Amino acid sequence: MDATGVLIVGGGLAAQRCAETLRARGYEGAIRIVCGEAEPPYDRPPLSKELLGGSVSAGEVAYRPREWYDDNAVELLLGRRARSLHPSNRSVDLEDGEALSYEKLLIATGSHARRLPVLDGFDNVHALRTLEDARCLHAQLKPGARLAVVGAGFIGQEVAATARGLGVEVTIIEALDVPLVPILGQRVGSWFAQLHAEEGVRLMLSARLEGARGNGRVEELVLADGRRVGCDTVVVGIGVAPAVGWLHGTSLEGGPVRTDAAGRTALPDVFAAGDAAAPFEPRFGQYAHTEHWGAAARQGAAAAQAMLGIYPGTPPLPSFWSDQYGLRIQYVGHADRASDTVIEGDPDARDFAALFSREGAPVAALAVGRPRTIAQMRRRIDEAYWNKGKETEARAA
Ligand code: FAD
Questions:
Q1: S-S: 129 plus which of 53, 113, 258, 385, CB 3.0-4.6 Å?
Q2: pTM
Q3: How many Å lie between the centroid of ligand 1 and the Cα of residue 109?
């Protein structure tokens, strides 16, 4: 690679792992990380958990101390955003007008939180994606304050759980009749609803937000059925979208960037990793987009290996965790592919595993307080996929 070296656009987990892996594997060329945020790469999961709860400080979520970047000759271009990619002359234009050339490029711009236009312009409406978002929200979570969380996905649920721990009155407003039902099904989704109800959260299901009342600050949320929810602070947790708008006009525009299992895109020397990417999933022959920490870490490292011509190996099954009310919830696999769910253990005692299967073969598992089950299920699900692949090949032969 020549002097322009590796350019990494986005400065989150995938970016960090790519830079670390390049150096660990002996790459000596230039590495630059361009990131729209002012902070060096930091860990996002604590933003809805320990950091929001106040038990961890902003300084503790940085992946590396500032000196690490100097010591490893990784140049940080912070507070600067990419505006466009020009693959034919191997350059990226920044919003401030500078053009950066690259020998190899990693797209690692992650996700941004989806907005609710009816809540635009109100001061007390928050998303939770960045350290700055978490700082602002934490300042509002005083005992007795009334928090409305729009959306009962994992981020909304974690915010609710952390806020309850701070003595905040929490209402969750969710459009579905059961939280997380499209991914985890009725039984597991209902368990999450029960968990929050037991912890004192007011859960409003099948509830559609129509608007808000207040002068500069939301005082009441208005639901489509006429109900009103008084609040001091609102968090919108309705999911994320890949931050790939800057790829407009290239063949990669339009959604998470498709890659092979090693992170290579359809453009020469352009790689993608993390929330912005949709790598090929060899288990079922489709591109699979995830928004999980483990995938971003692994894909960032895999892209670095692929840049150096090293085979990064088969990607593991997707997995994530969530911490709520002192419980560790873990998940592995693809529950959206399941047709059956079996529960082992005692959900009422908050100690159980949900085993998801399709045509008798395991496809996913969710466990509460059972880390060993997840490790076992990871092996069983993987074996089932590869054995099925072999059976299909044998039938075709
Ligand atoms: P990001 O971490 O999103 O980093 C991308 C960076 O690129 C950002 O700094 C962004 O500002 C920057 N950027 C965007 N556009 C541009 C541009 N045009 N130019 C320059 N820079 C740009 N996962 C789990 O598995 N378990 C959890 O418990 C969990 N909890 C989470 C809690 C919260 C509050 C959040 C927000 C996420 C959580 N996740 C969790 C998800 C996990 O953190 C993400 O999957 C992971 O951070 C994705 O990493 P990434 O490097 O792809 O992108």
A1: 113
A2: 0.95
A3: 8
